[in-house]
Design goal:
With 238 residues, the chain is of the alpha/beta class. The protein has one domain: 3-Layer(aba) Sandwich (Rossmann fold), CATH 3.40.50.150. It contains eight helices and nine strands. The strands form two sheets. A seven-stranded mixed sheet has the order 5-4-3-6-7-9-8, sandwiched between helices. Helix 1 packs across helix 2 and helix 2 packs parallel to helix 3. The protein is globular, with a radius of gyration of 16 Å. It binds S-adenosylmethionine. S-adenosylmethionine (SAM) binds next to helix 2 and helix 3. S-adenosylmethionine binds next to helix 2 and helix 3.
Length: 238
Amino acid sequence: MLFPNSAPTGIEQADLPASAQSLVTKLSPIFRGNSFRAISVDGRRAIIDYEANALDFNRSYFVRNYVKCLAIARLSNLCFPAPAGSACDFGSGLGPFSLAMAGVFPSLRFSLYDQSVAQIGLVKSYQRTGHLPSSFSAETKRMPFTNQPDCTLRLFSYFFCENPIIYDDKEELLTAIGQNALIVDYPEVMDSISSICKASGYEVTSISKIELPLGPSLRRIIGQDSIKVSGGAFRNGS
Ligand SMILES: C[S@@+](CC[C@H](N)C(=O)[O-])C[C@H]1O[C@@H](n2cnc3c(N)ncnc32)[C@H](O)[C@@H]1O
């Protein structure tokens, strides 16, 4: 099922919650150089050394990924009744998905997990400077892990593209996704995840390559007039 035709008509920097504004502003002057790019290995995209290049990655991708996550967060508001409890953000990086969700679902608590010590270190240092909410908890963990935390909603932004071993295996994928998940990823990754989930009884609400216009200040920061978003909401119907 496609999201209803109520996709945001555009996102402007002024639409962002205060915590996101400050982080976007903090990261954006260097982002403009767009000096850091993902490389591809074995035809798979986005293989990056997150330890050595933790800050460079976020200067290049944080604002862009944040805007994509915000689009999915807003659209998910249409198909998830206001979730309460906690959201787990797996492969969180600096937490663009949690930050976007926190603006749309203020009553959710967020737990950020990433295998990269450097990324989790950045989360904690931006919390200390007030650029990220101090209420987020952040921990270094590598997925898949046993004893998955109990959470209402699981968030994954550009996690699965780096973990084909998880999304190529139905059991691993469904264990990772749990009852309710929101995912932002490349279209081909979304297609694969969606078809496995649909066949397994999940209710899937997704968009593919939707072109979202950006307001003037985000246009300047991101260096594009619009941004393409693919992602979706997954609910276990059984
Ligand atoms: C492409 S980045 C995306 C970061 C962030 N979610 C975003 O949208 O900007 C992928 C992140 O997932 C983390 N990651 C990849 N595989 C992981 C795994 N198996 N367990 C935990 N973290 C993982 C990486 O360290 C990296 O920070």
